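Ticket #4471: complex job returned nothing on first submit. Input attached below:
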Amino acid sequence: MSDHHGDDHAREHDRPLSGPALRARALESLLVEKGLVDPKALDELIDTYQTKVGPRNGAKIVARAWTDPAFKKRLLSDATAAIAEFGFIGRQGEDMVVLENTPKVRNVVVCTLCSCYPWPVLGLPPVWYKSAPYRARAVIDPRGVLKELGSEVPEDVELRVWDSTAELRYLVLPERPAGTEGWSEDELAAIVTRDAMIGVAQVELPARGKR
Amino acid sequence: MNGVHDMGGMHGMGPVEIEKNEPVFHSQWEARVHALNLACGYHRKWNIDMGRHSRERIPPAEYLAFSYYEKWLRGLEMLLVENGLVTPKELATGRAESKASGAGVLRASEVAGFLRVRRLARMDDDVPARFRPGERVLARNDHALGHTRLPRYARGKRGVIDRDHGVFIFPDTHAMTRDKKPQHCYSVRFAACELWGQGASARDSVYLDLWDDHLDPA
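Support reply: We reran it on our side without changes. The output follows.
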């Protein structure tokens, strides 16, 4: 158990930066001084997750699956390989599983023990996904959570909750909404949301005229 | 360990609130903490399961009060000290007493490649599977003091093997002794009513990824 915490708390109250901001700055400068990290590499890591990796990646996968039956088949049988066709590989996406929503089955993904999430296709997880309310409730009351989030599941639809307890990472393939016949892959990708790929929302048509 | 991190099924945590147009990081220090965790992992002094276990060992009151990246910051401090990259005194004073010896360091030009490397959670070891899809299993009612990926809410419950994911590192030992103990990991389906009683929907189920050492035949 750590025995070093608390050292800084008393003096932090007088400073303009908040506690964790100060601690993070102190730790970074220590690690740089020791030669354990290169601050330029930190900049590059931050830029990667702020600008290069995010839910637009997953949306491309979904749009392709909606328009290319052969790709969809590959995606459902070997998601890791199919997703790698787009170059979305690596950290926190080493072994992917794609879960298909149908009119009779909906899937929801959670990590009750920590914050496991498919980084290469969705980026870093949002705060609510990592929060105590979602981690506590998604397994015991998924219908209640979805109803609160405006995505009520009809009684005759089966709900499957996937608790990410291993190094498998889950991506939900949402249902393609009616009224999108003939849309291009790019147009389809634009309406696919992060929350639909976690399973707490469905893909909706944009309000009239906004397409 | 029966820690507060094992949250599945707890009551009283409040509503799930989704922030509209949420930024990737809410402040610069969060971004630095995330990057520091990845850059320190480059030294391979600990594995991902040890990392998870460090955050699980944050005292419960703090765990609940901390924001997400505060937990990652505290966990990283613990890992650095416990694995000898930083001394307790250095952490307390913020001043280096010595330079790291001979360690390579992650450079900006290596970041893209570093993030694309497949880490080896999946193993090639030829280990026989104890169960086949469709078989009924009982999750063990174990209350290990150390790390485990078998949540409390599934212990002692009956499920069905849905699919065999293949052979993976066993995190429960990997976090504690670095023993990989390769074995099959399965997706196991538990009926919602088995986990939560008759008030749950008879249609619904929860799938957990569990290993041979978590399961017995039912």
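Chain B has a mean pLDDT of 96. Closing as resolved unless it happens again.
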